[in-house]
Design a protein that fits this description.
161 residues; alpha+beta; 50% helix; four-stranded antiparallel sheet
């Protein structure tokens, strides 16, 4: 297991990915030909592992944790070193990613397409629609929109509970 995969087994990764894409546990069970209880238990274990991985990455990067949501594969914090908000994400496709809010010069960065594609994959994995022409959105703006959406969903869930 590697930290980038959140220490998940291949089966846990598949189940977590299906759940994060919006499938209900019963449908995941049918799709994988396992019991709903197996899916539920695998999700519980996966979420614990993802929570541990998100927090470990935050600690390694000296990010002060504000919020963690393992079910969404998301951690929000603050980097005192860079004096900016920081985000740690987990997805089955991208593994663990660390993002720092900044006003970068994306147009001149060699990783422009890599960052854009990673962020678009994060948005797609979370079923977030991006209506603009994605080839023209700078990664810093795309990240800002994506993380606002994740935080907004998390705040809505907190209000419901």
């Amino acid at each position: 297991m590697t930290l980038s995969l959140g220490y998940l087994t291949p089966k846990q990764k598949v189940i977590w990915d299906l759940k994060s894409s919006g499938l209900q546990e019963i449908h995941i069970a049918r799709k994988l030909n396992v019991t709903r209880q197996t899916v539920h238990k695998s999700l519980d274990i996966a979420n614990l592992k993802i929570d541990d991985a998100l927090q470990e990455v935050a600690k390694i990067n000296k990010i002060d944790i504000q919020t963690v949501n393992a079910q969404k594969g998301f951690l929000k914090g603050y980097s005192n070193h860079f004096k900016t908000p920081a985000f740690v994400t987990f997805s089955a496709k991208n593994g663990i990613q660390v993002w720092y809010k900044h006003e970068g010069n994306c147009e001149k960065c060699k990783k422009l397409e890599t960052c854009r594609n990673t962020l678009l994959a994060e948005a797609k994995n979370r079923n977030f629609l991006i209506l603009d022409d994605t080839s023209k959105i700078l990664p810093s703006k795309l990240a800002e929109a994506l993380f606002e959406k994740i935080i907004g969903e998390q705040n809505e869930q907190t209000k419901e509970n």
